[in-house]
Write a structure and sequence with these properties.
By secondary structure, the chain is α+β, with helices and mostly antiparallel strands. About 20% of the residues lie in helices and about 35% in strands.
């Protein structure tokens, strides 16, 4: 499983998937493709929607809706480190949950088991 070590911004010093904010007029899939390209250089030719997550952050009042996709069929040679993320491959049985967002340990196993789902996490 490819994760990125976040070097700046929200989630700094954590491993995470690739993604970010929508640009005007973008669909969730278009956003996922663009952000993946920008953050690690890959341009997946296949995206499959897997989950929707809702995060609320009490301290800031921020609410984030996250669409989770499985990306495949890409040129791995294009993989690069960027100023935002350092990509790293992990065995699915050895994910660095202790260096990821706390909620990942709850929903990532569902994702890896092929379950489509929606979840809400309150921080």
């Amino acid at each position: 499983l490819l994760l990125g070590f976040k070097k700046r911004g929200l989630g700094v010093n954590k491993y995470n998937g690739f993604g970010g904010k929508f640009e005007v007029g973008e669909t969730p899939a278009e956003c996922a493709l663009r952000e993946t390209r920008e953050e690690c250089g890959l341009s997946p030719r296949r995206l499959e929607w897997k989950a929707q997550l809702l995060f609320t952050f009490r301290d800031s009042g921020t609410v984030m809706r996250v669409h989770v996709f499985e990306a495949s069929d890409f040129d791995e040679a294009a993989l690069v480190e960027t100023d935002e993320m350092r990509p790293e491959w992990f065995d699915v049985d050895a994910l660095p949950y202790d260096r990821m967002w706390h909620d990942d340990a709850f929903w990532m196993p569902l994702l890896l088991d092929g379950v489509a789902f929606e979840a809400w996490f309150d921080y």
